[in-house]
Amino acid sequence: MHSRKKPIVIVGSGFAGINAAFTLKRLNPTIAILVIDSQAKFIFKPLLYEVLSDEMQEWEAATEFEEIFANSGITFLNNNLLSVDLDERSLTFQNNLILHYEYLVISTGSKNNNFSIEGVDKYCHFFNNLNDLKNLKMGLAKSLNKSGIKNLSIIGAGPSGVELACKLFDMYPNVFKISVIERSKEVLNQSKTFNREEAEKAIKDRNIKVLLNTSVEEIHENQILLKDKYNHDIQWDYDLVIWAAGIKPTLPIFEQEVQKINQKIATNVKLQLKSYENVFVIGDISVIKGFETLPSTAQNAMQQGIHVGVNLNLLLNGKELLDYQFMDNGEMISLGIGKASLSGLGLTLSGKFAFELRRLIYASKMPIFQNSFKSAAAWLINKKNIFNNTN
Ligand SMILES: Cc1cc2nc3c(=O)[nH]c(=O)nc-3n(C[C@H](O)[C@H](O)[C@H](O)COP(=O)(O)OP(=O)(O)OC[C@H]3O[C@@H](n4cnc5c(N)ncnc54)[C@H](O)[C@@H]3O)c2cc1C
């Protein structure tokens, strides 16, 4: 193997980027790897619902990158990528920092998509990161100060909308009248049948109103303008509104033309950018040409990260790269406090035991062992209290 002056640069240290970095380091311990992220902490997003409900503490779902990469031989830098020059092989960051790379991985994830609907950014709460979580907690606290039953509207009945609706109902019984507004004809329209049916039951048990085949036209202060399937206008009053209707990739500026599919960066099946075989793009930001239906999930991002670690090592050693194949290990969804539904690998499970299993599986996926262990221990200690608070 020949020595190289510039490190391998990985921008975006979420599920995809972290796994790429650690896999490559394990396969090639002497290689210099630089990981850059605009945030200081890794967020284990699937556990944000439990942080909202205080079933978990924030440290269990958010770990400092400094801690994750300490003693790993991987260098971490906190900065925000602005643009990429693929021909010059250079990256421009905030504060005029310019870095050159020989090999690059871009894994900057996704952000909330307002679909250019008027009023979304101004009036809605979101639920994609720790800031959103803090803002939502403040919004909830403010609402609680008002007297009477409050109307809480959640836009989008995908996993995020459904999980939030059930969790918030359990957190504040008889405080909010919760409604979920969904454009398609069913809740969890991309999920496994078992989880969808369990979610429908959980929604019914909680008396949560679901408006299907209904799209949001505009959002104003305290009122949403909706259109139903007959094209009728509906004026929907709310006290608090949460936007859980979709995501879009977090794209840096590319100085060169790059192919996009549904706003995401298109890659080949080896996860490389067309015409730039030294650049890999993975996770929520990308789509594999020919495999456009693969999900934007942590599961897919982690598998892609591991695959890129392997492929980069092959590339560095002048060997042929492997095609990526997604392995569907199933899907887990929380359905209220202390309850969940799991479906996958021939197993379906719902209720309290599914919640326990989900939590243990997530604890095992934490990026550093100490935190997996601490989180699992905290869960075991708190478990009794959590279950005592539910029926
Ligand atoms: C509330 C919630 C619950 C979810 N639950 C599940 C679930 O149960 N199961 C599941 O499989 N998936 C779930 N997901 C989806 C899953 O979290 C994402 O698919 C996954 O995080 C994508 O991984 P990623 O590495 O592509 O992006 P991310 O994990 O989002 O990481 C992207 C990283 O890039 C950094 N970054 C962004 N822009 C820049 C920039 N310009 N410069 C430098 N760094 C940058 C970010 O700070 C971040 O650290 C959930 C998502 C949310 C929001």
Describe this structure in words.
With 391 residues, the protein is of the alpha/beta class. The protein folds into 3 domains: 8-38 and 79-111 and 248-316, FAD/NAD(P)-binding domain; 112-246, FAD/NAD(P)-binding domain; 331-388, no CATH class. The chain is 32% helix and 28% strand. It has helices spanning 15-27, 48-52, 58-61, 65-69, 120-123, 130-144, 159-171, 193-205, 298-316, 352-364, 369-388, and strands at 8-11, 33-37, 41-43, 62-64, 74-78, 81-85, 90-93, 98-100, 104-106, 110-112, 150-155, 176-181, 209-211, 215-220, 223-227, 233-237, 240-243, 247-249, 253-254, 260-261, 264-267, 272-273, 276-281, 286-288, 331-334, 340-344, 347-351. The strands form 8 sheets. A 6-stranded mixed β-sheet has the order 5-2-1-9-23-22. The chain has a 4-stranded mixed β-sheet with strand order 8-7-6-19, with no helix packed on it. It has a 4-stranded parallel β-sheet with strand order 13-12-11-17, with helices on one face. Strand 11 (150-155), helix 7 and strand 12 form a beta-alpha-beta unit. Helix 1 runs parallel beside helix 9 and helix 10 runs antiparallel to helix 11. It is globular. 41% of the residues are buried. The structure holds flavin-adenine dinucleotide. Flavin-adenine dinucleotide binds next to helix 1, strand 2 and helix 9.
What keyword list fits this structure?
FAD/NAD(P)-binding domain, four-stranded mixed beta sheet, disordered C terminus, 391 residues, alpha/beta, 3 domains, binds flavin-adenine dinucleotide
